């Protein structure tokens, strides 16, 4: 794989706003849309000030994270490099591939992070130990 390619892969949704306000539609299976069948949806909200979340990777799960309100900072790490990105645009989702370490920091009080997931919840799919994650990618 080409390690100079950015870990940060955005999915830009069409904003269907008009004078009444904004609307985004998420469609599956179209070009430039969510690249997997969605089996689960969850959202993270009312995160307490100063709290960080994540600190794990997934063996198989792929996800798209959309900050439908507020902002947070996402750290992605593929075991070779680390990138830091603000999620602050509700028309833009971040594709988080499998075998990618992720951390979430600096949640705004109003942040609602919507996550579209390719699989049902499975604790067996989590790698919660960073050294074990590194051993898995190298
Ligand atoms: C991820 C990041 C971005 C469930 O029972 N079902 C679920 O679908 C989820 C997502 C979680 N849970 C349980 C497991 C824990 O007891 O809810 C509790 C909190 O989950 P966790 O500590 O894994 O939350 P985060 O914010 O650290 O991670 C979550 C996702 O779990 C993870 O897949 O990529 O958001």
TrEMBL record:
Matches recorded under SUPFAM superfamilies: RmlC-like cupins
Gene3D superfamilies: Jelly Rolls
InterPro entries: QdtA_cupin_dom, RmlC-like_jellyroll, RmlC_Cupin_sf
Residue intervals of the Sugar 3,4-ketoisomerase QdtA cupin domain: 8-136
Protein's name in the database: WxcM-like protein
Species: Spiribacter vilamensis
Species classification: Bacteria, Pseudomonadati, Pseudomonadota, Gammaproteobacteria, Chromatiales
């Amino acid at each position: 794989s080409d390690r100079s390619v950015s870990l940060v892969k955005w999915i830009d949704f069409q904003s269907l706003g008009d004078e009444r306000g904004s609307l985004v539609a998420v469609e599956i299976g179209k070009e430039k849309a969510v690249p997997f069948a969605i089996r689960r949806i969850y959202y993270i909200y009312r995160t307490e000030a100063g709290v960080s979340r994540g600190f794990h990777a997934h063996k198989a799960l792929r996800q798209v994270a959309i900050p439908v309100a507020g902002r947070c900072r996402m750290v992605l790490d593929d075991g070779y490099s680390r990138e830091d990105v603000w999620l602050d645009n509700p028309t833009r989702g971040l594709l988080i591939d499998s075998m990618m370490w992720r951390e979430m920091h600096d949640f705004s009080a109003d942040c609602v992070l919507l996550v579209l997931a390719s699989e049902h919840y499975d604790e067996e799919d989590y790698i919660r130990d960073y050294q074990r994650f590194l051993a898995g990618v190298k």
